[in-house]
Amino acid sequence: MSLWQAFIEALESLLANKLRSALTILGIVIGVAAVIAMLAIGAGAENTITGEIQGVGTNLLFVIQGGFNEVRNPKPLTLGDAEAINDPFAAPSVAGVSSALRGTVEISKAGETTRTTVLGVTANYNEITNTDIREGEFINENQILGRSSVILLGTDVAEDLFGAKSGLVGETVRVEGQNFRVIGVLEEKGGSAFANQDDQVLVPLTTAQIRLIRRSNRDQVDVLYVQTQSAEVIPQAKQEISQILRKRHRTELGEDDFTIVSQEDMISVASSITNVLTIFLGGIAAISLLVGGIGIMNIMLVSVVERTREIGLRKALGAKKLDILIQFLAESLLLSLVGGLVGIGFGWVISTVVGQIAAANDVSINPVISLQSVLLATLFSIAVGLFFGIYPANRAASLQPVEALRYE
Amino acid sequence: MTEKNNLIVDARDLTKVYTMGEVKVHALRGLSVRIKRGEVVGVMGPSGSGKSTLMNILGCLDRPTSGEYYLEGESVAEMTDNQLADIRNQKVGFVFQTFNLLPRATALANVVLPLRYSDNHDDHQALAKKALESVGLGDRMSHRPNELSGGQQQRVAIARAIVNDPAMVMADEPTGNLDTKTGDEVMELLLKLNEELGTTLIIVSHDPEIVNQTERIVHILDGRIEDGEVS
Question: What is the ipTM of this complex?
Answer without folding.
Answer: 0.92
